[in-house]
Amino acid sequence: MVFEFLLYKFGVRALIGGLIVAVTCASLGVFIVLRRLSLISDGLGHVAFGGIALGFWTGIYPLYTAVASVIAGALGIHALSRLRVASDAAIAILFSGGLAIGIVLISMAQSAPADLLSYLFGTILGINDNDVYLAAGLGVIVLVVLILLWKEWVAITLDPDFARVAGMPVTPLEILFTVLVGLTVVVATRLVGVLLVSSLMIIPAIAAIQLRLPFRRTVLTALALAIASVIIGLQLSFSYNLASGGAIVLVTIGFFIMTALFARLLPKMKRELPVDPWEHQCSEPGYMGSREQKNREKT
Amino acid sequence: MPVDAPRDRPVCLTVNNISFSYGAELVLENVTLAVRQEEFVGVAGLNGSGKTTLLKILVGLLRPDAGTVEFTCHMDDCEGMSPCRPCIGYVPQQPVLRQQQFPVTVREVIAMGTYGQSGLFSRPTKDDAAAVDKAIAEAGLGRIAGELFSDLSGGQQQRALIARALVGNPHILALDEPTNGVDAKSKQEFYALLSHLHLTHKITVLIILHDLTELSRMMERIVFLHHRVLYDGPAGALGSEGLWNLMVRAGSQ
Question: In the CATH scheme, what is the code of domain B1-87+171-253?
Answer without folding.
Answer: 3.40.50.300
